[in-house]
Design brief:
The protein is α+β, with helices and mostly antiparallel strands. It has 2 domains: 10-48, Single Sheet (N-terminal domain of TfIIb); 50-148, GMP Synthetase, Chain A, domain 3 (2-Layer Sandwich). The chain has helices at residues 50-72, 112-126, 128-135, and strands at 13-19, 22-27, 32-35, 76-88, 96-108, 139-148. This is OsmC family protein.
């Protein structure tokens, strides 16, 4: 299998309060991200919002899959950009209700059928983050464009 998944893997993270509504998140692998709120909620707007990090994580997960699948299919990928747009509920909790991922895949002689297959496999089989959110009731859609270059 080309995507490394460890069944039953235990992941850990640590979130440390910095001040007001600023928090430093540290992954089990030692990487950090600063999260903060908007000024009207006591923040200084110096970091991403927690829901933004969730959205970016989902996009990273899906992009990892798409690129890995295309490389395994011997496609000459030179770039992959996922543009994500999400809608949230008006009431609390302000959960995501809809998320759309648009992949811009660039490469040399890319086969559109392979790009389509990679996006579908990520959405339906491999992307743990988007599949989990979909099971929670978020409407998730995907599309793509192939760019020669």
């Amino acid at each position: 299998m080309f995507i490394s998944k460890i069944k039953g893997e235990v992941m850990k993270a640590r979130i440390k309060w910095v001040e007001n509504v600023s928090f430093l998140g540290e992954s089990g692998t030692g990487h950090t991200v600063l999260m903060d709120g908007p000024e009207d909620h006591g923040g200084r707007n110096i970091g991403m919002r927690p829901m933004e990090t969730l959205l970016i994580g989902m996009g990273g997960c899906a992009s990892f899959d798409v690129v890995s699948i295309l490389k395994k299919s011997r496609q000459q990928v030179t770039d992959c950009v996922a543009e994500i747009e999400a809608e949230r509920a008006d009431e609390v909790p302000s959960v995501f209700t809809k998320i759309h991922l648009h992949f811009k895949v660039t490469g040399t002689n890319l086969k559109e059928a392979q790009v389509k297959r990679a996006v579908e496999l990520s959405a339906e089989k491999y992307c743990s983050a988007s599949i989990m959110l979909g099971k929670a009731g978020v409407e998730i859609t995907h599309d793509y464009e192939v760019i020669e270059g």
